[in-house]
């Protein structure tokens, strides 16, 4: 597979670079268990593109949670923080691929719906944080990944136009959002989004099971 004709690269984190989706599953399960509720597929599909405050608003309203939005977010962060530091690995080939792009002078950014306090320490612990020239968080713009805004912000911050950037994403909503912005896209396999693999393959310009394919 020849994915070489780009000047900038934008990466999602959870499910794309980080094998971390199980952490959020565990957070949801524990949060709901404490309230004698059950996590549903519908709920997961709705909140997966939201940043935490928006997801907390939705959760509070849908399930009539007594805690404030801020308290819900704090509880989620507390539940996931230790997991990110101790139980999240890079997906196969990620370090080597990012280093190869960095060594070639390719500008890179990550664009994520996760919170800064959660993910940056994880990237530093795995030795990849310094490969990135910029970051973009959904929480900065309050618009989910179904729209191109987060990717446009990332490309602006690395100074590379969308037509010269590739976006790596594991979810179909992110692929569609990036395509709206004029980006080349590469779908990345993750167990959590495996049900959408056929659709991602149709929409994305490229698709990989592992970054090892690009080395």
Q: Care to give the gist of this entry?
A:
The protein is of the alpha/beta class and 215 residues long. Helices cover 47% and strands 14% of the residues. Helix 10 (197-203) links the parallel strand 7 (184-188) and strand 8.
Plain-language structure description:
By secondary structure, the chain is an alpha/beta fold. It has 2 domains: 138 residues, Rossmann fold; 66 residues, DNA polymerase, domain 1 (Orthogonal Bundle). 47% of the residues lie in helices and 14% in strands. The chain has 10 helices and 8 strands. The strands form 2 sheets. The protein has a 6-stranded parallel sheet. Helix 10 links the parallel strand 7 and strand 8. Helix 4 packs parallel to helix 6 and helix 9 packs parallel to helix 10. The longest helix is centred in the middle third of the chain and has 18 residues. The radius of gyration is 17 Å and the shape is globular. The model has no long low-confidence stretch (mean pLDDT 94).
Order of secondary-structure elements: EEHHHHEHEHEHHEHEHE
**Secondary structure: number of strands:** 8
Give the rounded overall mean pLDDT. Answer: 94
Could you name the CATH topology of the largest domain?
Rossmann fold
Low-confidence stretches: none
List the helices and strands and how they pair.
Blueprint: E1 8-11, E2 18-19, H1 21-33, H2 41-47, H3 52-63, H4 69-86, E3 89-90, H5 94-103, E4 107-112, H6 116-125, E5 134-137, H7 138-141, H8 149-158, E6 165-169, H9 172-180, E7 184-188, H10 197-203, E8 206-208
Parallel strand pairs: 1-4, 1-6, 4-5, 6-7, 7-8
Antiparallel strand pairs: 2-3
Helix pairs in contact: 1-4, 3-4, 4-6, 9-10
